[in-house]
């Protein structure tokens, strides 16, 4: 199992290019099932999760080639609407296969994902909505077995869910009637999925809002090209790293509009931020102020940047609060950050972080993708050698992370222990 050894204490300085968004490309890859065609998708990050999604597509009969961040997917020979446990258990986003399978084949067998490091992560919204659209669903041998020609209709989610919104958009793409979704998620990754689905001739009204109407379309298509949006979570991680290491980092290939709340919070924390059309420069300006955050659906502060913000706040010149509203148990990084000397307490879904002057190096263990990122940030500031084990989590979501960190002056190396 690989680990990182990090020699911290140096400011990160320089420029790095942000990869395509993992959470956008995964549903887009699943969406290629909807219509039999050839797809060319650019700006695809080479990650463990994208490779798992390739395996899922191949399992269903698709032909896939992945070459230098370009994915060539041919779904003409797809004939097996099955997402098996061996793949679903390694990546919950495999559940995105359900909507596209129903759209194209009117049947799907998708393994039910389990919980994860942040506690239970139910899929009840996906199932309820598909039933309301006319699907017949049973659970057998740990699999969701879904059948029926979907009618469409009105779906109202109790809570905004990125995954359920994406799945229902894809399920609705070839239904008999339009589907209206109320209380839909409007994350940039959902917008990217909508734009991709529209290329297949399916009109979607209300893109970027919480009220979507999907007008199905069954016309044949042959070839589709798409460029995936930049990864706002990877970008936010490096922006936080710039301030936390007292550095000066420019990140390019980003969409600053997707990062408004992060830019606002970093400015409150004392960073100087210069914004260009597709790049952002973050400069440390002598202090890290304590700044509270509360995670919310987009355009609120993203839960996927909560752990990294907590890491930053451990070095602030005061006390700050973090409230986690999306995944109330998403605090596995706290006990590892405390190993670096951080002073953090928490109760229910609220953490209080008392800023200290310096973190001290430590051996720590990563528990999920974003928690791992928070530990890397902490290690980069701690003066001396830290090690981070179980970094397979980080390889699921951050492309070439050690190359990018090295490029801006961080001393990080991967070892196989
Ligand atoms: C996606 C992201 C993940 C991010 C999360 C929230 C991908 C691949 N993953 O996950 O990185 O942290 O959005 O921005 O894009 N819920 C239910 N029942 C359901 C579905 C969701 O109760 O059927 C709840 C969840 O427990 C959670 C909330 O709804 O409290 C939001 O979850 P959701 O937006 O669905 O997260 P994911 O799509 O799984």
Write a structural description.
- The chain has 417 residues and is an alpha/beta fold.
- Helices cover 31% and strands 27% of the residues.
- It has 14 helices and 24 strands.
- A 4-stranded mixed β-sheet has the order 22-23-1-24.
- Residues 23, 26, 93, 121-126, 159, 161-164, 185, 189, 303-304, 326-327 line the site of uridine-diphosphate-N-acetylglucosamine.
- Uridine-diphosphate-N-acetylglucosamine binds at residues 23, 26, 93, 121-126, 159, 161-164, 185, 189, 303-304, 326-327.
| Spatial separation of the terminal alpha carbons | 6 Å
Q: Tell me the β content.
A: 25-35%
- In angstroms, what is the radius of gyration? 21 Å
SSE class = alpha/beta
Q: Helicity, in percent?
A: 25-40%
Cofactors and ligands: uridine-diphosphate-N-acetylglucosamine
Quaternary structure of the protein: single chain
Question: How large is the count of helical segments?
Answer: 14
Rounded mean pLDDT score: 96
Overall shape: elongated
Largest sheet: 4 strands, mixed
Uncertain runs are none
**What strand order characterises the main sheet?**
22-23-1-24
Number of strands: 24
